[in-house]
């Protein structure tokens, strides 16, 4: 059922390329459609406005002729009957009626073209018509009709009715042809937009396809692949950088895991081989009770070493858990340091090493983890400081609200080139230096994890033959 649902989702989901193409086509169609509608409206309204102005101007002209020359019938007939003749493309007709709507003068053949009854009611003498009425004859010709009253001379009781008709059939044909051309343009625009949308989507998504090809090459053995800072689009720069950073973290974690596995196998092999060897020797011949006791005591030391190693690894695993947290309490730092020094005093005296303490501060941290971190540092310092050497522990509060606890020894020191890796698990700056020394090689790694849990830092300064200083910086 789940497979069918997934397959259905794959079939119904659209690719980004298809979505971009369709959105591009729809956007282009919307813009072209709005543009064609606007252009069509501009042309139609422009022609209609000019026609209305033309008819209104003719009415004003005839009113002036009737007002100024009421008795000059020839001028009026010339204006009505013959002025319209030259207008072939935009032929207009004029008719003069008396108050009883009887025709006095009209353009030749006007009665057969536009009857009197088809005209709208006239506007007043003092008004100028602004909008004509559109009318279509039986033969399919289109006309604009306009009617107005006019005075004959200065006599208030002599009024006439002016009827004007403008043949706009050619304009209708022009608009219809223009409309067809706009539809062809719209159709061609959609087709071109589809082609352009496909090309634009393909070109725009090409960087993503390149990223996909690079990602497909990434594997456990190919973690070195990187997207790099190529000419990615601005929107993909952050993605490429984040992806490269992720690969860096993965490669580092993978390398650390591989190294950790190799180091762990090496660390476990030594005590196990010792146990196997001692057991084989013990079983090679019959021995007395004392010999078996010595074998068991030696084996117990190896078991303790293994238990300590496993316990340290478990601690590091818990510390690296994102949900790990510390139980912070306030305590007197110097008092806790002096307690640890007292614990290590017997070992230090046996080694011929002097331990001193200085400074004081109140620290807000996990007391158990603090003691463990400092204990690891003191143990390392004692084991690597020769007879007659000195170890000093200092506490100080810095100006940037950090409390620093430093452990300084006059021991053998290490080369500064090893300090960046000295806090890694099982790292040995000098393997020969660690021979016959107790420990698991995880002490400094544990210190680093403890400081990370406290949002603090740990640093080391060392020089061969001059000693080492390890500083723990806790947020105050």
Record the SSE blueprint.
Elements: H1 2-12, H2 16-68, H3 73-82, E1 92-97, E2 103-106, H4 110-113, E3 133-136, E4 142-151, E5 159-167, H5 169-204, H6 206-216, H7 234-284, H8 289-319, E6 329-332, H9 333-351, E7 354-358, E8 362-365, H10 367-383, E9 390-397, E10 402-409, H11 443-453, E11 457-463, E12 467-475
Parallel strand pairs: 7-9
Antiparallel strand pairs: 1-2, 1-5, 3-4, 4-5, 6-8, 9-10, 10-12, 11-12
Cα gyration radius (Å) = 51 Å
CATH domain topology of the largest domain: Beta-Lactamase
Q: Output the CATH class name of the largest domain.
A: Alpha Beta
Question: What topology, given as strand order, has the largest sheet?
Answer: 2-1-5-4-3
Q: Which of globular, elongated, flat, extended, rod-shaped describes the shape?
A: rod-shaped
Quick one: how many beta strands? 12
Can you name the CATH architecture of the largest domain?
2-Layer Sandwich
Q: What does the largest sheet look like?
A: 5 strands, antiparallel
Beta-strand portion reads 15-25%
Count of helical regions:
11
**Level of helix content?**
40-55%
| Main structural class | alpha+beta
Order of helices and strands: HHHEEHEEEHHHHEHEEHEEHEE
Uncertain spans: 432-436
| Head-to-tail CA distance between termini | 57 Å
Mean of residue pLDDT values: 81
What count of domains describes the coordinates?
3
């Amino acid at each position: 059922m789940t497979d069918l649902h997934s397959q259905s989702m794959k079939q119904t989901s659209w690719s980004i390329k298809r979505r971009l193409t369709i959105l591009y086509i729809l956007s282009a169609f919307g813009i072209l459609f709005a543009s064609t509608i606007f252009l069509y409206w501009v042309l139609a309204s422009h022609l209609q406005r000019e026609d209305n102005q033309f008819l209104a101007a003719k009415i004003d002209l005839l009113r002036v002729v009737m007002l100024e020359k009421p008795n000059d019938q020839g001028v009026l007939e010339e204006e009505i009957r013959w002025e319209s003749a030259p207008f072939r493309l935009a032929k207009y007709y004029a008719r003069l009626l008396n108050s009883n709507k009887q025709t006095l003068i009209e353009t030749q053949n006007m009665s057969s073209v536009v009857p009197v009854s088809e005209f709208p009611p006239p506007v007043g003498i003092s008004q100028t018509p602004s909008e004509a009425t559109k009318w279509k004859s039986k033969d399919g010709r289109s006309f604009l009709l306009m009617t107005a009253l006019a005075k004959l001379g200065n006599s208030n009781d002599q009024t006439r009715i002016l009827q004007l008709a403008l043949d706009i059939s050619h304009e209708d044909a022009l608009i219809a042809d223009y409309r067809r051309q706009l539809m062809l343009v719209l159709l061609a625009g959609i087709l071109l937009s589809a082609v352009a949308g496909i090309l634009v989507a393909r070109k725009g998504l090409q960087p993503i396809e390149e990223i996909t090809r690079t990602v497909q090459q990434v594997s456990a053995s190919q973690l070195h692949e990187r997207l790099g800072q190529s000419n990615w689009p601005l929107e993909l720069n952050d993605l490429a950088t984040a992806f490269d950073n992720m690969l860096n973290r993965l490669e580092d974690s993978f390398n650390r895991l591989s190294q950790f596995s190799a180091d762990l196998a090496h660390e476990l092999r030594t005590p196990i081989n010792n146990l196997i060897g001692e057991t084989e020797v013990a079983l090679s011949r019959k021995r007395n009770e004392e010999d078996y006791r010595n074998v068991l005591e030696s084996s117990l030391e190896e078991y303790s070493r293994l238990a300590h190693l496993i316990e340290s690894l478990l601690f590091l695993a818990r510390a690296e858990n994102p949900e790990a947290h510390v139980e912070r309490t306030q305590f007197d730092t110097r008092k806790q340091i002096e307690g640890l020094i007292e614990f290590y005093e017997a070992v230090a005296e046996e080694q011929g090493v002097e331990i001193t303490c200085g400074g004081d501060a109140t620290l807000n941290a996990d007391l158990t983890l603090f003691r463990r971190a400092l204990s690891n540092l003191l143990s390392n310092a004692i084991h690597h400081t020769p007879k007659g050497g000195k170890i000093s522990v200092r506490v100080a509060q810095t100006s940037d609200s950090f409390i620093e606890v430093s452990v300084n020894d006059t021991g053998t020191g290490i080369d500064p080139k090893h300090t960046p890796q000295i806090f890694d698990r099982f790292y040995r700056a000098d393997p020969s230096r660690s021979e016959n020394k107790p420990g698991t090689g995880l002490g400094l790694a544990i210190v680093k994890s403890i400081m990370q849990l406290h949002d603090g830092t740990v640093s080391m300064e060392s020089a061969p033959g001059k000693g080492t200083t390890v500083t723990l910086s806790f947020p105050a």
